[in-house]
Amino acid sequence: MPELTKRQLLTSGAAVSAATIAGCIGGGGNGGGDQFHFTQEQSREEQFDPVVSNDAYSFQVIQLVFDGLYEFDEGLELQPKLATGEPTVERDGTRYIFEIEEAAEFHNGDDVTASDVAHSFTAPVEEETENASEYDMIESTEVIDDYQLQVDLGEDPYGPFELATMGVTVVPESVRTDDRDAFNSDPVGSGPFTFAELQENEYVEIERWDDYWDDLEPNLEQIRFEAHEDPAGRVSDIRASNTDVIAGIPNDDWDVLEGEDGVSLHSAESPTFMYMAFNCNEGPTTNPEVRRAIAHSFSMQDFIESNGANVNSPMYSPIPPVVNEVWGFPEDEYQDMLPSYDPDQAQSLLDEHAPDDFEPIIITPEGIRAQLAERIATRMDEIGYGADVNVLDFATLVDTYTSGSADDYQMYLLGWTGGPDPDYYLYSLFHESQEELNQGHFYDGSDGFHDAIAEGRNSADQEERYDIYEPVIREIVEQLPALPAFTQDNTMASRDYVQDLQAHPEVTRNPTLVADYTNVSME
Fold first, then answer.
1. DSSP string of 178-247?
2. pTM, whole model, 2 decimals?
3. What region holds the Solute-binding protein family domain (predicted)?
4. Which pLDDT tens digit goes with each residue over 49-83?
5. If phi over 0 gives left and psi between -120 and 50 gives alpha, with beta otherwise, what is residue 328?
6. Which of 243, 382, 468, 523 is most exposed by smallest CB count within 10 Å?
7. How many Å apart are CA 135 and CA 119, to the nearest integer?
8. β-strand 95-99 against 88-90: which pairing, if any?
9. Contact residues for 126 (Cβ-Cβ < 8 A; gap 6+)
């Protein structure tokens, strides 16, 4: 059962959450010098052991130091990396046999072996790390020989295994287990860059590994990662050439940077789902007509256009558009099903189905979601009802929305990020087992609603899973336990001497500095 993790639950305006200790900005701007400076939008937890780390901003470093068994390409599809190709699948989708690249080796010269891959799959569960839920469907592993590994799941297949779990980041078992604390701060991987220096809460430096086993040869020699939590500060730094690339462009600064000489902008839709959930446990919002009325009372499209059009895109279902591109659910149909802006209809439905003194409590984190809550309150006030907006810190918000009490809230705004599989969104945010964990709407659903979500994750056939999930998505759009709001973009700005930089849909893959489709350089 997935737990709420920092790489999934969206607590702030960034694509994922992390600690917010500001790092020092050293400055690059050397227009082709040896060191490439990347300014992260939030600070790292400084955990660089992939088995332990559950922080997106540490993983931005990790993904350059380590290789995965498979890795996400620019279209959010897994491609073989340390694996020679697709696995052999047996036993009705519950057994996978992987073949490992014999040329692959770690930075210390040790070969990457099947034992290392097996350890990478099983260690998160055995050590009960925050990443355990990503691998706890694995029942056992068997090392066939140095370069072949068998992975057995439980009695049932696990639907997201081929779209997500196979992308395990591979660590050297012997080095890691010899001294885990040392490995966490000075890791050894098999990726194109080696770990060079860590100054905690200041910067991390990595260097090109000239003996990289793969054919890819990075153009960049040295990378420095520094964090800057202040958006205005990041914008100032890129405008002044104090850094080469910044991540996380504020919506209001997009036009400023777009018109700035010597600056280029980069953007990619991310697999995020920002939403407003309704209390379906008790109170007036247990009535779907009240939920529809509130959705009719304001225009989500107008809100996005005025508050976030540069860095956000509208959503029409709980499946992010970038994920929907992989699966092909009928998004246009869902858009037509959602209530359009119609204040007269909103007032009519509330007059019929809500108490005369209905003034719902909306709880929200700060940022753009608080702005959305205020917009809803304003529009509801215009039709004679109003709403009470409570902006809460994240810890208080979690304690509150999981209560299911109408005295605490009728609506809450949050967000979620996952991978390219519907299970990440449907199971975590709508299955009954996740009540009081990842969700606080307590939606009972129709007969078979929760069974279908569970059935979808226990099938290995994508066409079969599509047929299972589509009615579930349709019911969510129609009954509105959660109203889709928008998906966030992963954004970067670079100086114009930075060549071939592309934004990746998955925040942990930014910056992708060397891949089959790009090789960043400074010229």
1. H-HHHHHHS---SSSEEEEEEETTTEEEEEE-TT-SSS---S--EEEEEE---HHHHHHHHHTTSSSEEE
2. 0.84
3. 77-434
4. 999 998 889 999 999 999 999 999 998 889 999 99
5. left
6. 523
7. 11
8. antiparallel
9. none
Tell me the CA distances in angstroms from 497 to 221, 223, 235, 339, 429, one per residue in order: 15, 15, 17, 47, 43
pLDDT at 10: 52
Phi-psi region of 135 (alpha: psi -120 to 50; beta: other; left: phi over 0): alpha
Q: What is residue 515's predicted lDDT score, i.e. its pLDDT?
A: 95
DSSP annotation string for 444-499: --STTHHHHHHHHHT---HHHHHHHHHHHHHHHHHH-SEEEEEEEEEEEEEETTEE
Predicted pLDDT at 229: 87
Task: Answer yes or no: are the C-beta atoms of 187 and 195 closer than 8 Å.
Answer: yes
Per DSSP, the three-state class of 369 is helix
| Closest of 57, 46, 34, 51 to residue 198, by C-alpha | 46
User: What is the model's pLDDT at position 132?
Assistant: 87
Predicted local confidence at residue 9, as pLDDT: 53
For the record, the structure tokens of 326 come out as 């992989």
Task: Report the helix count and the strand count for the chain, using DSSP H and E.
Answer: 16, 23
Q: Are strands 361-364 and 388-391 parallel, antiparallel or unpaired?
A: parallel
Q: Which pLDDT value is given to residue 399?
A: 87
**In whole angstroms, what is the distance from residue 421 CA to residue 275 CA?**
18
- Which token pair is 234? 């990041």
- Residue ranges of alpha helices (H) inside 317-367 are 321-327, 331-337, 343-353
Residue type, 324: N
Distances (CA, A) of 132 to 434, 437, 448, 515: 16, 16, 28, 28
SS3 83: strand
- Supply the pLDDT for residue 15: 35
> Measured between alpha carbons, how far is 293 from 147 in angstroms, rounded to an integer?
59
Q: Which pLDDT score is estimated for 438?
A: 80
Domains along the chain? Answer: 20-66+191-262+496-523 (3.40.190.10), 67-181 (3.90.76.10), 272-488 (3.10.105.10)
Helix (H) or strand (E) holding 72: strand 70-72
The low-confidence residues of the chain, meaning pLDDT below 50, are 1-7, 11-32
Whole-angstrom CA distances from 102 to 143, 160, 327, 392, 473 are 15, 27, 34, 52, 43
CA distances from 56 to 19, 43, 92, 237 (A): 10, 10, 34, 22
